[in-house]
UniProtKB/TrEMBL annotation:
This is Dihydrofolate reductase family protein. Gene3D superfamilies: Dihydrofolate Reductase, subunit A (3.40.430.10). InterPro entries: DHFR-like_dom_sf, RibDG_C. The lineage of its organism: Bacteria, Bacillati, Actinomycetota, Actinomycetes, Cryptosporangiales. Pfam families: RibD_C. It comes from the Bacteria.
Amino acid sequence: MGKVVMNASVSVDGFIAAADDDPGPIFEWLVSGDVPLDSGGVLKVSQTSYDHIRPYWDEIAVTIAGRHAFDITDGWDGTPPSGIDHVVVVTHRPAPEGWDATAPFHFVGGIEAAVTTARELAGDRTVEVAAGDVGGQLLAAGLVDEVRMDVAPVVLGSGKRYFGSVDGLHLLEDPDLVIPGKRVLHLRYRVRR
């Protein structure tokens, strides 16, 4: 069975976007290099970031996201982002009216159902969890194995927190990966059990 990884780009003060969902310069690192990261060549990163991110992206089979992320991205137009096979959307609402039922999106009513569905779909590949409220809920429930952060050199001051509204203590192991890239610091922590 694959691992469950919480991941996102984040400001140094712990925000994934402003209150209005604008990420500001948090994603600047994804266009600050000269090595194409995606097939369209829109994302260009440093070689160091490419060597770290591309293999990770290739191991992800499923992303778990909340309904808010689904809605603000317009459901990624029915195509999972970054070549991912499936998206599991945590929501208490049905799929949008007119949604293509053949799109590889799965709408579930809670975090436990999301992880169960995602693990079944992923097999032995990685399940990625979008940071924010849903990611924080999974961490608090003990359902996350690893936390990855792409830390951008920006201070937002306020906004959407990386760990959402988690208010309890959760321990992580020492970072086992620290990679400086252009306009980003890539970090990885295992969740202490």
